[in-house]
Amino acid sequence: MPEDHDWEAYKVPPTRTPVSERTTSVPNPVNFFQSAFSYVLDAPVTFVREWIERWQSKNKFYYYHQKFRRVPDLSQCLDGDYLCYYEAEAQWRRDRMVDQEIVEIVRERMAACKQREGPNRFQNCAKEIELLAQVTKAYQDRYGDLGYHGNARTCLMKQKHRMMEERKAAQEE
User: Fold this and answer.
1) Residue 41 and residue 172: Cα distance in Å, rounded?
2) Half-sphere exposure of 164 (CA within 13 A, CB side)
3) Angle value at C-alpha 30, between 26 and 32, nearest 5 degrees
4) What radius of gyration, in Å, describes the C-alpha atoms of the chain?
5) Which residues of the chain have pLDDT under 50?
6) Can you give the pTM of this predicted structure?
């Protein structure tokens, strides 16, 4: 619906309902309940909320995501450097979680596009489907067949074996 209506073309008719003025001696019960609600429930809650907001404005707390520095990869660790092994393992787990979230976000975007487009989803969501195929292939290449208990060492070995197979295939051609 357009935002710039032509008010001259579509004039709003004036209201014809007269304003009624009650001239009775009986008080309106709605006014009584509104004022009772205001004084009994709304005023204390509003007071407490404003007091909390004043207290929080004095003690501002800024939340940022925890940022970890990048640590050396497992292949760059020296022999017997167990602290480096531990840090590389923790880094690998964080990278795996980030990659899982990336796959999930792309999957949600594709599902939203399919829901939005309906019968034309194959034509209109081709970019999202292609992107999901690329992301899932990259995730599967890196983390596939590791299982739940996969770790940085098995992932590195998988990557090494894949690179050796690619070199062997390149030499055979």
Assistant:
1) 82
2) 6
3) 75
4) 32
5) 1
6) 0.59
